[in-house]
Amino acid sequence: MPEELDKRKKKILQAIIEEYIETAEPVSSGNLVNQLECSSATIRNDMAELEKIGFLEKTHTSSGRVPSQKGYRYYVDELIRDDKLSKREMEIIRDRLETKVNALEDLTKIATTTLSEITHYTAITIGPDVNNHIIVDIKFVLLGSRVLMAVILTDSGIIRESIIKFDEDITNEQVEELTNLFKSKLVGKPLQTMNAPLEEFIMDEMKMGINIIKKVIEEINKIILESKEVFLDGANKVVNMPEFKKNDVAKDFLNVLDAKDLVADVLNTGMADDIKIYIGEETEREELKNFSIVTFNHLLKGKDIGTIGIIGPTRMDYSKVISVMKYISKKLNDDFKNGKL
Amino acid sequence: MPEELDKRKKKILQAIIEEYIETAEPVSSGNLVNQLECSSATIRNDMAELEKIGFLEKTHTSSGRVPSQKGYRYYVDELIRDDKLSKREMEIIRDRLETKVNALEDLTKIATTTLSEITHYTAITIGPDVNNHIIVDIKFVLLGSRVLMAVILTDSGIIRESIIKFDEDITNEQVEELTNLFKSKLVGKPLQTMNAPLEEFIMDEMKMGINIIKKVIEEINKIILESKEVFLDGANKVVNMPEFKKNDVAKDFLNVLDAKDLVADVLNTGMADDIKIYIGEETEREELKNFSIVTFNHLLKGKDIGTIGIIGPTRMDYSKVISVMKYISKKLNDDFKNGKL
DNA sequence: TTTAGCAAACTTGTTGTTTGACTGCTAATA
DNA sequence: TATTAGCAGTCAAACAACAAGTTTGCTAAA
């Protein structure tokens, strides 16, 4: 149940959070007196109460107030406004999303880069779950006498490749037989079909050894499972944050990013249609307790083509981030519908 | 013509540079007295002379000496030793390069990541020039009614894709005709064949409009030209550098990296078989005057599969960087020959 | 040619002091 | 009862003055 706050307290909390998001400095009662119709003493009294119920904190006895995690949560749930995009910013986004892409996954990357650019936070994306994407074509190419490359095209436009090494030489005939076999068995079916029992891939008139087929299936299955490529943009944005000057905030942050997998893990949890927000300890990962993560899934034709997230300090401009995400998401889908993509 | 230095001066210069590379502190005459068989006064005299000919600099009247760009250049050309790799490090490299890769270009990325990991500098790579790679297969996939994807496989294992948008609907028949046309015209030829005059692609019995073909060729040509994807690893390594504490070195550095294109540009210039070193202003780019760049081309089967570079402070451990690069380069080619890749 | 010795230059770290920005509390006010 | 003015107490940040420690360049001796 949401805490009950009177109108003025709401205003004060909102003002403090927005001020703090902007300046990263503890905000004082005097600072707010212009925006509210009451004296600094009144504000001080309310601030004391907001602190008592855990929405605000102090850095030392005579400092201004700083929002707590609980405070941010209340703000995000109850007070936030999401009309923060300027005409100019929308223009930039539209412009970016219309740049030519080569690979489909580049589209997600461009969205990520744009997100980082507009919000000034670090944006991160993990590759899509391709299990239910339909196989359109499979091709094998011999790179070395014992090195084979498999390429799989899907209807969503996402391509998966795998380099497979053998202990024996592979002949061109075998490559051809492999191509025919996998084409006949898999084209038109979803990628997860690769998980079927080995027997299903064996044909009577086959000359090729069963070990080769087994190996190929194994390797391809690996890439389907672990194809969660992580792409990250704007990591350096931290150095422009005021927190950066104190302590080793920047260092900590960059080290967190180094552990891409950790962040990717949180993004994974967040699989959903809507935007999800994790504030500080809500990520339930010790290393991320000083950061917030906002994620959304990027769907095209109903298929997941990647999860995109923003990671930044808990003092994040949630309002801006949400606005941008919503806009990008909408734009991508509209464009696709209109064939503009 | 290389400056003439007597044996002791060489030793002093080398000692100063290596000490400075390690500590990032100006090095004093007293500091070196253990490594050399003479007194600090003698060293001071030599240091004064080395300063006079521009190999050393001072930060203030009574500070120790710091190498100048010219000093580093002399060091790199004349004094450097390249046996800096420990058994342990070689092991790590071997280990990394043997991890499974899916796409061939991932191999270059892994090399890049490894390079960054071992040297603790930022590593960067740009995609290969694919003009002379042989086309093995071409495939078109319809993603939307007006959105077509082209996929080109090459003999080197490098794949290029392009998303092409049309102003009119594309039918499945047209896709098939396109596939047949391009396959017959291009398979077995190098990618640069796509640059041939339009007429060469027109067949008598063709039903499809010429505009479609024109558009397809245009778009594919674009990706061949501009397929210089930039991949970067270890940008955060700067925060661990002592310089980072002073001024805004880290900020500057990260902002430089933001301009990936700039760095990519330098890498491009460096196309050559051998390792190239650019110290400070030698890059001839104002923004990079405080950095050094070391690059090498990664060839496989004689074909360029990407240029890899290291970017770091002029105070870079050139010796280490060169050792690692040489080792990685050798390892990659050996592995490929042995089919281990 | 090398070295010892020493004054001068300059950085770094410490300490004490001042200044200014807050808050919390009390008492007056609407 | 809710608000406000006024004021003492608290703390951080900025500053100055000072001491200590490096390192150089120079001079004169070895």
Please name the defining characteristics of this protein.
alpha+beta, 5-stranded antiparallel β-sheet, 341 residues, 3-stranded antiparallel β-sheet, 10 strands, 11 helices, homodimer, DNA-binding
Polypeptide structure, described:
- By secondary structure, chain A is of the alpha+beta class.
- Chain A is 42% helix and 19% strand.
- The first copy, chain A, has helices at 7-23, 29-32, 40-52, 69-79, 87-97, 104-119, 172-186, 210-225, 249-258, 260-269, 318-337, and strands spanning 56-58, 65-67, 122-126, 135-144, 147-154, 159-165, 230-233, 276-279, 291-300, 303-313.
- Chain A starts with 6 loop residues before the first helix and ends with a helix.
- The mean pLDDT of chain A is 85.
- Chains A and B meet through strand 4, strand 5, strand 6, helix 8 and helix 9 of A and strand 4, strand 5, strand 6, helix 8 and helix 9 of B.
- The structure holds a DNA duplex (30 and 30 nucleotides).
Largest sheet of chain A: 5 strands, antiparallel
Number of helices of chain A: 11
- End-to-end separation of chain A: 43 Å
Rg of chain A (CA only):
26 Å
Shape of chain A: elongated
Order of helices and strands of chain A: HHHEEHHHEEEEHHEHHEEEH
Instruction: Let me know the average pLDDT of chain A.
Output: 85
Given as residue ranges, the uncertain stretches of chain A (5+ residues, pLDDT < 50) are none
Oligomer: homodimer
**Content of β-strand of chain A:** 15-25%
The assigned structural class of chain A equals alpha+beta
Helix content of chain A: 40-55%
In total, the number of strands of chain A is 10
Question: Looking across the biggest beta sheet of chain A, what order are the strands in?
Answer: 7-3-10-9-8
Q: Report the largest inter-chain contact.
A: A-B, 45 and 46 residues
